[in-house]
């Protein structure tokens, strides 16, 4: 699971959960994979990213990447920033671990890089 | 890339070895997938440089076709881990790991685990299950998962997730019903093609269930519409 994927997922499918975002991440096995930089793609995707959630994820994973606290208009044109966003969104793969609902603590396993968001009948909202 | 070239590449997508009948699993053929995605791009510009969602990604055929035609990035959802493992293997084969991300989620009973207020895909692509009735109504264990009308369920999700358009397949016999729904959901609907579809006709008798798999079942031919839906009420362009 890449951080671009994590940025899209919520646990609001659970009963009793209001927002369920962002999910906390616990990584047991993580890989860094080089991906060709595509500036246009990153520039296109940034408006869809929940920036605070991305910073929280970077923090959860203990990544040594510096993302500024806020994302200004000028920053979105800055090449260095775009390259960091590319790296953070696409190059870190959580292979094994868990996503954790911020409201209920319910864990969603990640295995072979695929988050499992299946629920029991009793958990469905 | 030309259509024939695309179809040729897609012939390397591996099919299910043990397709699950109760999930109506079968591979979208390279022939059909190539035409669907090629049309979506050349006629409507809905693939290249766009963010896509594939509902019921299965073998990954439609998503791989889309990446070959330069989609930016794709999120694929499926409930079945065996399908997802096969899909992952196909993605690796095509070296598209950086472009396609997989999520295991049940689209039949539960909403998608995404924030629907933050519409995330430009285009949704899908070959949804059509919904065949359970083979034996007396089975307690039968997980009545693919009920008739499940494709409308998928379409409803697609409607919530897509910013611009949806490409899907539905039985021709349900066309009028779908027109009504499209209108209710504020979408334009265009039937781009009518196809003869061969889906495995699975054994109705319980006793044959163990030996019958989608890969050795006789084929049943049905008429299917390839449809493009366009979202009307989006003012965020």
TrEMBL record, chain A:
One of its GO terms (molecular function) is protein heterodimerization activity. GO terms for biological process: rRNA (guanine-N7)-methylation; tRNA methylation. InterPro entries: Trm112, Trm112-like. SUPFAM superfamilies: Trm112p-like (SSF158997). Belongs to the TRM112 family. This is Multifunctional methyltransferase subunit TRM112-like protein. It comes from Rotaria sordida. The lineage of its organism: Eukaryota, Metazoa, Spiralia, Gnathifera, Rotifera.
TrEMBL record, chain B:
CDD domains: AdoMet_MTases. Gene3D superfamilies: Vaccinia Virus protein VP39. Signal peptide: none annotated. GO terms for molecular function: rRNA (adenine-N6-)-methyltransferase activity. It holds the Pfam family PrmA. PANTHER family: RRNA N6-ADENOSINE-METHYLTRANSFERASE METTL5 (PTHR23290:SF0). This is Methyltransferase small domain-containing protein.
